Amino acid sequence: MEALFKEQPYNCSSFTDGLWSVASHLHFFWLFLHSWDERYHALVAKNLMNHPLKPTLYDNPILPYDYRNWVGNHVWVHKQPLPLWIMSASMWLFGINEIALRLPSIILTTIGIWLSFIIGRYFFNKKIGYLTAFLFFHQWIDNRINCRKNCNRPHRHFLFILYRDSNCV
After folding, report:
1. DSSP string, 11-55
2. What is the pLDDT of residues 3-36, one digit of tens each?
3. Stated pTM of the model
4. Would you state the pLDDT for residue 86?
């Protein structure tokens, strides 16, 4: 293993980034939902399992609601449907639990790191590819830290970034 790192010094950087990536995803296994975004998005994703084209916050609203108030409406339009569909599909496959809800984020960020490396290597060289993957990974960590309460917003940002990056490859 030591010879591998001596021949290609960037393998050590890649190995270290891989370890950091695994370590940074450990917080996904905290088995509770955070107060604002994650709870509501989890509920809407769970309801999408029953009716995929209608993202409802409450399936059977008890109190009257104003359909023009997007925050307190029966239909949830706070988040785009694709991230909710992905979370719903994950919960359909792996069961209704916190890990299944967070699994798409782990997969999408891992793919994003890999695509960043490929794009940097394609347009420049391997060194720039590793640097690009490193910066992408640390930008993701900064996003989680700055979000303070581990909110669920990276889903839609990384879906856009993955769509953009996959078109470059």
Report:
1. HHHHHHHHHHHHHHGGGGG--S--TTHHHHHHHHHHHHTT-TT--
2. 544 555 555 555 666 666 666 666 556 666 666 6
3. 0.70
4. 93
Q: What are phi and psi of 38, to 5 degrees?
A: -65, -40
Q: Give domain limits for the chain.
A: 2-168
- Token look-up 């270290």 returns 16
90, 101 Cβ separation under 8 angstroms: yes
Cα–Cα distances in angstroms (integers) from residue 3 to residues 120, 130, 151, in the given order:
25, 19, 42
SS3 152: coil
Structure tokens at 6: 């001596």
In 3D, which of 18, 84, 25, 23 has the Cα closest to residue 51? 84
pLDDT for 32-69, tens place per residue? 666 667 788 899 999 999 999 999 988 888 888 888 88
Q: Is the Cβ–Cβ distance between 141 and 109 less than 8 Å?
A: no
Span 109-140, pLDDT tens digits: 788 888 888 999 999 998 898 888 888 877 76
Q: Which residues pair with 75 in a beta bridge?
A: 56
Whole-angstrom CA distances from 138 to 16, 26, 55, 114, 135 are: 12, 15, 32, 13, 5
